[in-house]
Amino acid sequence: MNGKEVWSNRSESGLDLVWEPVFASIARSGDFGYDTGPSKWRAKKTEEKFSGFGHFVSIWKKQKDGAWKVALDCGIENPEPTGKTEALRTVVPEETAKSTAPGAAGKLRTDTQQNFAEAAKIDSAAATLEVASTDIRV
Fold this sequence. Notes:
Blueprint: H1 3-8, E1 16-19, E2 23-26, E3 32-42, E4 52-62, E5 68-77, E6 89-91, H2 102-122, H3 124-131
Parallel strand pairs: 2-6
Antiparallel strand pairs: 1-3, 2-3, 3-4, 4-5
């Protein structure tokens, strides 16, 4: 079905959905990015308290005309958060280091992937943390 058409023609349900990005990043290529953060909802906007809580991820893709569109929007449900919502943090990747030997970068990447795959067979969480950026989002 045409999701945009279905969404545009739906009747108003009164559902109140609130979401707030707290982390956003973009690819070095400048054509792909994502944001993530908490969400909450209630059956009616007039209800005093929210009845559901979760976390969302939206993946954005830059179109040929330069406009950004959501390629995927999904979320999970979780218990009500107990702390304050963190402030929005953005991460823009640094330029890649220039290598004088293009083949060396490819070999390093292949070796790193192979080492990760072997370590992940034993303990995937430990293997991930070993190679992950400090900004990893799980």
